[in-house]
């Protein structure tokens, strides 16, 4: 009897030790390896991003300088044709979304539900369709300029929700997702507030705040290379 | 003595039970974490590549622009060249906005109801959104040009695009990388598969000379926009 208990106790302690060992190993193995490489990559990414910001600023300065030079040429030459073309260029750039603009409109802020409930997890997160439906509704109600997390909506803008982030015009943004639209604030507000999709999202605690604003600034379409590059293969038919 | 043994055995068993439960949970947790970490690493890599590519393009663009500015400063351009350069910029912006009729290679897609379900605005929207995801340069529905702020709405049994009523069959033209566009439409569980369930009759044709007409000048409205620098 005594021996039996001893054997059992021995076995129990043996397994006990094994478990503790396993537990510690698991904790030690799991963390540092992955963390380090992710950290390194993240640091690299930050570097590229700050470089990007610097380059964008340089580009903006250079563009301003070039526009100044154009204006000077128009002024000094006093060439009517050039002055008219400069005006036309400003007008067409404005229509193409290549100029930053301000005006009144609405701002929509969206965020995944804070906690999941008893429904499927899919019902608590924002999907591509939710964002695209809102964009379509804004367009159908006379929005003249739209941005998603600061990215100007142009012909081929199609936001994609990837995990807890959103990709717009090839750039990735963390939540909340912010959609700005310039147009008639009352019309846009009513249109979005009466969308069944919005009501559905709110049912599962997805945040959809709609707010009218007097002055919204929407930046121009951000281009990383010359405009002509995006038009390659297109031939103008008169 | 016997009481002591029983108590100690109970204690050991209790602790072990807790540890087993803890271990199980922590293994499960580690799996979740590892998945998340893996995903975020590949996400970071993807983002890093995009940023690097952007920066390369930006550097090139800066050089081009610097050359442009330098030529300006040197005063080598004559009036005629200045005018030509400006005209080109105006035209490029007009093409981008959809104000010029354009020709290029791409796809011609037709959709028509085959069964009981009619083709609705949201079906066309879905198809167009799919095309937008693959670097499309120009799109039209029944020769109505789709621009940045184009609206597609329901109008009874038909659809309205840019305020004009369109009737089926719907012909969608798209200029861009034909193979990429076709692939994204034909994805498993993609838009065309869905249309099959609705019994829509669809066809896709590649064409090297797709012509897409310009949008009406007055369609692009900017009266609520104030330019800011």
Quick overview of this protein structure:
Chain A is an alpha+beta fold and 238 residues long. Chain A has helices spanning 2-30, 32-77, 80-96, 128-140, 185-193, 196-203, and strands spanning 100-111, 145-148, 151-152, 160-162, 165-168, 171-173, 177-182, 207-218, 235-236. Chain B is an alpha+beta fold and 229 residues long.
Describe this structure in words.
The complex is a heterodimer of chains A (238) and B (229). Chain A has helices spanning 2-30, 32-77, 80-96, 128-140, 185-193, 196-203; strands at residues 100-111, 145-148, 151-152, 160-162, 165-168, 171-173, 177-182, 207-218, 235-236. With 238 residues, chain A is α+β, with helices and mostly antiparallel strands. In chain A, the strands form 2 sheets. Chain A has a 5-stranded antiparallel beta sheet with strand order 3-2-7-1-8. Chain A is elongated, with a radius of gyration of 28 Å. Chain B has 229 residues and is of the alpha+beta class. In chain B, the strands form 2 sheets. In chain B, strands 3-2-7-1-8 form a 5-stranded antiparallel beta sheet, covered by helices on one side. A 3-stranded antiparallel beta sheet of chain B has the order 4-5-6, with helices on one face. Chain B is flat, with a radius of gyration of 30 Å. Chain B starts with a helix and ends with a strand. Chains A and B meet through helix 1, helix 2, helix 3, strand 1 and helix 4 of A and helix 1, helix 2, strand 1, helix 3 and strand 9 of B. Strand 9 of chain A pairs antiparallel with strand 1 (102-113) of chain B.
Notable features of this structure?
heterodimer; A: 238 residues; alpha+beta; five-stranded antiparallel β-sheet; three-stranded antiparallel β-sheet; 6 helices; 9 strands; elongated; B: 229 residues; flat
């Amino acid at each position: 009897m005594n021996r039996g208990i001893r054997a059992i106790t021995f076995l129990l302690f043996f397994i006990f030790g094994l478990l503790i060992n396993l537990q510690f190993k698991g904790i030690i193995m799991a963390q540092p390896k992955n963390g380090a490489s992710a950290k390194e990559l993240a640091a690299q990414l930050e570097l590229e991003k700050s470089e990007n910001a610097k380059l964008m600023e340089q580009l903006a300065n250079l563009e301003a300088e070039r526009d100044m030079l154009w204006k000077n040429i128009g002024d000094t030459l006093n060439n009517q044709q050039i002055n008219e073309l400069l005006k036309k260029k400003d007008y067409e750039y404005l229509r193409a979304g290549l100029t930053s603009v301000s005006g009144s409109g609405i701002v929509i802020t969206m965020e995944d539900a804070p906690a999941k409930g008893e429904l499927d997890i899919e019902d608590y997160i924002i999907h591509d369709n939710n964002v695209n439906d809102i964009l379509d509704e804004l367009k159908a109600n006379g929005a003249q300029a739209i941005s998603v997390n600061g990215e100007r909506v142009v012909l081929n803008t199609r936001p994609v929700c990837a995990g807890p982030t959103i990709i717009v015009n090839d750039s990735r943004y963390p939540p909340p997702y912010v959609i700005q639209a310039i147009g008639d604030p009352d019309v846009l507000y009513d249109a979005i507030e009466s969308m069944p999709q919005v009501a559905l999202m709110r049912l599962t605690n997805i945040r959809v705040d709609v707010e009218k604003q007097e002055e919204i600034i929407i930046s121009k379409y951000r281009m990383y290379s010359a405009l002509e590059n995006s038009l390659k293969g297109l031939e103008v038919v008169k | 003595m016997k009481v002591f043994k029983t108590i100690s055995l109970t204690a050991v068993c209790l602790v072990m039970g807790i540890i087993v439960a803890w271990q199980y949970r922590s293994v499960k947790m580690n799996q979740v974490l590892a998945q998340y970490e893996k995903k975020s690493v590949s996400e970071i890599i993807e983002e890093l590549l995009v940023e690097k590519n952007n920066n390369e393009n930006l550097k090139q663009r800066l050089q081009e622009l610097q050359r442009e500015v330098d030529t300006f400063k040197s005063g080598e351009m004559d009036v005629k060249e200045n005018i030509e350069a400006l005209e080109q910029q105006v035209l490029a912006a007009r093409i981008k906005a959809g104000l010029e009729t354009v020709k290029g290679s791409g796809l011609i897609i037709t959709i028509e109801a085959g069964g009981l379900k009619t083709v609705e605005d949201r079906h066309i929207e879905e198809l167009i959104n799919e095309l937008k995801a693959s670097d499309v340069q120009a799109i039209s529905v029944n020769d109505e040009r789709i621009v940045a702020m184009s609206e597609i709405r329901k109008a009874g049994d038909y659809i309205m695009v840019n305020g004009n009523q369109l009737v089926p069959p719907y012909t969608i033209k798209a200029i861009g990388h034909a193979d990429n566009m076709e692939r994204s439409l034909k994805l498993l569980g993609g838009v065309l598969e869905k249309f099959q369930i609705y019994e829509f009759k669809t066809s896709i044709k590649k064409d090297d000379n797709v012509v897409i007409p310009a949008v009406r000048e007055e369609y692009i409205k900017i009266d609520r926009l104030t330019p800011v620098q």
